[in-house]
Write a structure and sequence with these properties.
The protein is α/β, with parallel strands linked by helices and about 220 residues long. The chain has helices spanning about 20-35, 95-100, 105-120, 195-210; strands spanning about 10-15, 40-45, 50-55, 70-75, 80-85, 90-95, 135, 140-150, 155-160, 215-220. The protein contains 4 helices and 10 strands, in the order E-H-E-E-E-E-E-H-H-E-E-E-H-E. Strand 1 (about 10-15), helix 1 (about 20-35) and strand 2 (about 40-45) form a beta-alpha-beta unit.
Amino acid sequence: MMQAEQPSSSLCIKTFATPQDYAATFAAMKSLTEQRDDNTPDELWLLQHPSVLTQGQAGKPEHILINTDIPIVQTDRGGQVTWHGEGQLVGYFLFDLNRLKWHVRDLVNFTENMMLWILKHYHIEAYTKADAPGVYVEGRKIGSLGFKIRRGRSYHGLSLNIDCSLDGFQTINPCGYAGLEMVRLCDLITPCPTFSEIAALCQQFIMEQQIFSQIDAQAH
């Protein structure tokens, strides 16, 4: 009797050189998640967005403190409001958790560990909090995360501040925490790494984990 073919465990990492519209990217994530099957390769998208505020599924409008011309997009991820913009690496994890045999906590740990590993590469001591997902340096938040799981498949992901403006964060309670101060890599080290350098470290981290049998890296 022939054995059933094992589902694919390959990953496609797509790095985008130019800023990507948030609403269009959000729609593309949902579409891929809805249409994929058991053999669809997982994907990781590494990119930047033009300035935008994104509100979590249960986000409270009172966490937007100042009305500005920054677009506000309602999403279906967890968490409250956050800001994305150029100079910030955003990573979207389109993973089949069932195939990886991961729980949501495994995905969160993997994402936080990626950011911790990148910061350690630059000799930055960072840490996580059990009651407030993300990555912190001396009480200030440098990396955020939020996910949506649909039929055992994830989308949305992380954001890591490199050399972005902090003005957008100052119009909100970041991630729903009043008074939370944000920090960037450029505040901590000189010279500051580029988006491309941080994206390359994301890829290196994943390769070293040996989770996927095949990894295909693509530049867009």
